[in-house]
Design goal:
Elements: E1 7-10, H1 14-24, E2 30-33, E3 52-55, H2 57-65, E4 75-78, E5 80-84, E6 90-94, H3 95-98, E7 104-108, H4 109-121, E8 126-129, E9 137-140, H5 147-151, E10 156-172, E11 179-185, E12 188-195, E13 202-210, H6 211-219, H7 222-232, E14 240-242, E15 247-256, E16 260-263, E17 266-270, E18 276-277, H8 285-301, H9 312-341, H10 345-359, H11 363-373
Parallel strand pairs: 1-2, 1-9, 2-8, 5-11, 9-17
Antiparallel strand pairs: 3-7, 4-7, 5-6, 10-13, 10-14, 10-15, 11-12, 12-13, 15-18, 16-17
Helix pairs in contact: 1-4, 1-8, 8-9
Amino acid sequence: MTQPVDICIRGGGVVGRTLALLLARERLRIGLVSKTAATASSAVPDTGDVRAYALNAKSRALLESLRCWPDAQHATEVLAMQVKGDDGGEVNFSATELQVPGLTWIVDVPVLEAQLADAVRFQPQIELIEAPQPAALTVICEGKSSSTRAEFGIEFDVTPYPQKAIAARLTCELPHAQTARQWFSQGEILAFLPLGGPQGNSVAIVWSVHEDRAQALLDESPAEFCQRLEAASNGSLGKLTLISERGAWPLQMARAERWAGTHAGKAWALAGDAAHTVHPLAGQGLNLGLADAAALATTLREREYWRGVGDEKLLRRYERSRKAEVMTMGATMDGLQQLFSRDDASWQALRNWGMNGFERSGLLKQWVARQAMGF
């Protein structure tokens, strides 16, 4: 028989599972609503899932504290990053120059989800449930299309971009050398994220393209698609071979009006993409979501002894602690997207001049890099 829970978490993705594990350490009884709740094989990675995310040092430390950090084969350390503009602009980052072990880690999401699922299944404070249960606090981690957020009447301000992101995995003729690569060209953004560990020669791609040509790229044969990628990446990794299906989704910037409140007398809070989404050009989306989970767990752990987990003032503390960072990151990503989406010559010259100036900026460049890395 299902036991009463202190907190009901709706959404069993990376953010939801991470939050459940963090709160279980505080001896709170957690009900985790997940579509895999009734599936015995829920911890088996989906081999058709092409997602890979860049996780910074703060996210790594958080997941390591839960013993859920993947091995080096599935969390590839990035030692260098090359960003190229469309008219000679270029920015380079190096872990050696910044005196850090790695700039970021490219994590195979299905493997990470499988490790988190295993940890959840063996945590006695967490119960996997198929439907929401009454609780002092409901945390919504269902992603950008959350049905619970709509059910609770929470406004979600969405600014769509005229782009779609195409994701896939490829093997490369040349090894990636633990280098992440990114190209800005004609309003589109292509990123190669290294996979397979230090000696790997495979990459995950995220290609943000104009929405009116996304379907044509998806419909091309694997050989034609790879030829286009080879041209867009200036042949930097030689001949490319598609080794997965291609996925695509529309891009947007979005933010919930409120991140905490009450509904029908019960407290709720948002975390992850249910609260906010940003353009993926800097790979910060999951880092922001994991930071939400860490902040909410810290807020509940440090609460006054007489406050319950659903105390509205307590949840406002959580909201205030996260909104500034998320709004700043969202505005920055939006500004960059707007800058690089303009295709007239004057804007092209300005952005490439700015990239080269930033490359030579010294301390400013180091500060921005360390902020992105979570230091």
